[in-house]
Write a structure and sequence with these properties.
Rossmann fold, four-stranded parallel beta sheet, 10% strand
Length: 430
């Protein structure tokens, strides 16, 4: 079915027997999230195809100047659709759409154009958004549906954070990921029973997960360089986009540190509140978003409390402190790309002891070059000794060059850590 703009709609009839393909940005988050979709009657599958074939497929069906994350998503979709695994007349794809001032808001149109070029114009493209940008008769995002997606975000953020804090120190290699995978299965099974999907159960699971990671994974206790990761959301989170950056850092003896998806959601919701405050725009929308922000912030404070009550792990940062960190650096009115949040995350990492920060960004993403690389000189002036490096990711970028720059950063960081440990030993001896 097509509408007046020649867009293939996802209809109510399609919901019954169409398979919806999800791109893979955050594996643990999205595995839990896809089960939520299944409980609301959608047949869906999380794509796991990766490697150079995906990049080549993206380059074939999009312009080589296209935003790198868009190229990867398109490449992953079309590569999967061309595999012969799916009935093209009973398959749809889904993509988030924020509506912000970024090329990411054009992903939906780019995907449709690429599908048409690849000879698959019949495949519907579903926009997952809360801004009313596009609607499909067969896809409805209700309040209960959205709340369960949020639960998947909460769980995914927790597991990602604990894996990052445990894996570099684990005595038994692979134990951390095995425990995380076990909990993904448990949580996915719980999502099948709506009676078990409520906030009280989320808190109980949070406490149990924290306890399990704290008691069931022996850690060596050695001090390691903590390396913060910030950047454009897809490149920051997706192993496909950042060449398995977390794995590389762990293999080099470092601990990756990264804010979760909840922070980005809170940033996105807060933009409407800021727009009203600065420009007197859309008062009613600002009130709704302020309510949503307060709701999300309250939940974040609950999780921070649970960390402190049930584990020895470092909890996520309070987003209000993240907002406050940018004072004197950048305005909340800077909202293109990841906007002020990217700068704020660098500052938060530095203040929390992760003075080594990698800024991951698509080569052609001008907004994030400004709020990332463009802010580094000023941040270094205010925080002498910090170790900041900007790494560009693109289809033509050399992985060897990227890893060599990371190794140089880690060499400097390890030297500083060794000097600190030697100074501490001398102080104890005196």
């Amino acid at each position: 079915m097509k509408n007046k703009t020649d867009r293939v709609l996802f209809t109510k009839e399609m919901k019954k027997d169409y398979t919806i393909l999800f791109p893979n940005m955050l594996p643990m988050h999205f595995k839990i999230m896809t089960e939520v979709f299944r409980q609301y009657g959608y047949r869906c599958e999380l794509l796991e195809n990766d490697g150079h074939d995906v990049i080549e497929c993206g380059l074939k069906y999009t312009h080589n100047d296209t935003c790198y994350p868009a190229l990867l998503v398109i490449g992953q979709f079309i590569s999967a659709l061309q595999s012969g695994k799916y009935d093209l007349n009973k398959t749809a794809v889904i993509m988030t759409q924020t509506g912000g001032g970024c090329r990411a808001s054009n992903y939906i149109a780019l995907i449709r154009k690429a599908l048409k070029k690849a000879g698959m114009p019949q495949v519907p493209v579903i926009s997952l958004n809360v801004a009313g940008l596009e609607k499909n008769p067969g896809f409805k995002l209700s309040l209960g549906f959205g709340k369960r997606i949020l639960y998947a975000v909460y769980y995914g953020d927790l597991l990602m954070n604990l894996v990052q804090q445990c894996r570099p120190y684990e005595v038994e290699k692979g134990a951390t990921q095995a425990l995380a995978d076990k909990w993904v299965k448990v949580l996915t099974e719980q999502m099948k029973d709506r009676k078990q999907v409520n906030y009280k159960r989320v808190q109980e699971n949070y406490a149990q997960i924290l306890h399990d990671f704290d008691t069931k994974i022996p850690r060596d206790g050695k001090r390691r360089v903590r390396v913060g990761i910030v950047g454009e959301i897809f490149v920051k989170f997706s192993p496909l986009a950042n060449n398995n950056l977390e794995d590389f850092l762990v293999s080099e003896g470092a601990e990756p540190v990264m804010a979760g998806l909840l922070d980005f959601l809170m940033y996105s919701v807060n933009t409407a509140v800021v727009d009203h405050r600065l420009y007197n725009m859309k008062k009613t929308r600002a009130k709704i978003m302020k309510f949503a922000y307060d709701f999300l912030h309250k939940k974040q404070l609950d999780f921070i409390r649970l960390y402190r009550e049930h584990s020895s792990f470092i909890p996520p940062n309070d987003f209000e402190k993240t907002r406050a960190a940018i004072q004197g650096y950048i305005s909340e009115g800077v909202q293109m790309g990841e906007g002020w949040l990217l700068t704020a995350e660098m500052l938060e990492l530095i203040e929390s002891g992760a003075a080594n920060v990698v800024c991951t960004q698509p080569f052609g993403c001008l907004p994030n070059h400004i709020v990332g690389k463009g802010m580094m000189k000023f941040i270094r002036e205010q925080h002498p000794g910090v170790n900041l490096v900007a790494i560009d990711y693109d289809s033509s970028a050399s992985r060897i060059n990227q890893e060599n720059r990371l190794k140089l950063m880690l060499a400097n960081a390890n030297r500083v850590l060794q000097e600190q440990e030697n100074a501490e030993k001398e102080t104890v001896q005196v």
